[in-house]
Amino acid sequence: MIGLCVVCACGVWTAQAHAQEGAIALRADSEMPLNKPVRSMAELRYRSVMRQQQDFSCGAAAVGTLLRYAYGMDIEEKRVIADMMKVSDPKQVAEQGFSMLDMRNYVQTLGFRGRGYRVDMTALRDLAIPVIVLLNLNGYQHFVVVKRAAQGRVFIADPALGNRIMQEWEFAPAWNGLVFAIVGDVPVRADSGLMQTNAPTLRARENAAFAGGALPPQLEFGPARWDLF
Which residues pair with 136 in a beta bridge? Predict the structure, then answer.
């Protein structure tokens, strides 16, 4: 139990937090307690991100992040890893981790379409759904989810580090120019924490897609590039 002292305009409040319950009870004098839910910094950092549990599992966790938070699947990383291993080369996975081809083969078993594209930074800024990219971070190959890119920044859901922002100048040289998108029969959840809803252009594109009843290819990925696999 953690004792806290909270000062407000009405006087001094005493607060007690039960870490296991994720709530703080505030009490002023003899008044009834006021329960306020709280979240730890770790919870906020990994909000809408599947955290990788193995050194080699960033690819599986990135796929799991999209399946769980973009399409609402009730899925855990352990299941993603086990099922991806069934459609992958175990030796190659042990040496290099999962590949985008492994991702495609896996999501197809779930009824999704996996699409790989080569795009540039300009196209990345126009993406309408979150995608998976591979970054070379000081020689370490690491899969992350790009939620959006805007105003010189790239917003990332990182299975190892959680939600973070990279400047374009540091992102561009680490990125190989490929994106992997998972597409389902229904659009990405509008309330997904992975979706950007502030940019007017993306909002207009989303509204147009919903009005048509489906997401046309150019609205799924932004500017079209060739399909790699």
Answer: 141
What is the per-residue burial (b if ≥16 Cβ within 10 Å, else e) of 186-211? ebbeeebebbbeeeeebeebbeebee
Residue 122 CB neighbour total at 10 angstroms:
10
Distances (CA, A) of 31 to 13, 25, 28, 35, 41: 10, 12, 6, 12, 30
**pLDDT surpassing 90 at residue 50:** yes
Residue 110 · residue 221 · CB < 8 Å: no
Tell me which DSSP letter residue 110 carries: T
Q: Which residues are known to be catalytic?
A: 58
Two tokens, residue 80: 């993603």
Mean pLDDT throughout 32-45?
62
pTM of the model: 0.70
pLDDT value of position 111: 94
- Torsion angle of C-alpha atoms 166, 171, 176, 177, degrees rounded to 10: 80
